[in-house]
Amino acid sequence: MSRLVASSIRTRLALAGFPRGSSTVVTFAFDAADVGHPLDAAGFVAPRREGLLLLGASFTHRKFEGRSPAGHAVVRAFFDERAFTLDDAAS
């Protein structure tokens, strides 16, 4: 067996031990004046112990120049796998 193949197998076996799950990413765009917060960071991570569907958010317009027109905010929100069970029609 070649070293590359053996290395690949070892890597796959090592990664298989990590817990993982699915996630959903939703991108929102706003007029920055409508946000009501300066969004003066790269984003945030929500502590898992809080039990929120929201895992965190990235303020894309702050991280990457030119990702949005001036005066606009782009927020990418990351949700855990429980978001797949939500129903728009539910009350």
Sum up the overall morphology in one term. Answer: extended
**Rg from alpha-carbon coordinates:** 19 Å
Low-confidence stretches: none
Query: What is the number of helices?
Result: 2
- First CA to last CA: what distance? 58 Å
Domain module tally: 1
**Class from secondary-structure proportions:** alpha+beta
Order of helices and strands: HEEEHE
* Portion in strands: 25-35%
- Biggest sheet character: 4 strands, antiparallel
- Helix percent reads 10-25%
Number of strands: 4
Mean pLDDT: 85
- Described by its quaternary structure, the protein is single chain
Question: Strand arrangement, largest sheet?
Answer: 1-4-3-2
Features:
20% helix; 4-stranded antiparallel β-sheet
Description:
- The protein has helices at residues 3-16, 60-63, and strands at residues 23-31, 43-45, 54-59, 72-80.
- The protein has a 4-stranded antiparallel β-sheet.
- The chain is extended.
- It contains 2 helices and 4 strands; from the N terminus they run H-E-E-E-H-E.
- The chain has one domain.
Provide a quick synopsis of the model.
Helix content is 20%, strand content 30%. The protein is of the alpha+beta class.
Write the layout of secondary structure elements.
Blueprint: H1 3-16, E1 23-31, E2 43-45, E3 54-59, H2 60-63, E4 72-80
Antiparallel strand pairs: 1-4, 2-3, 3-4
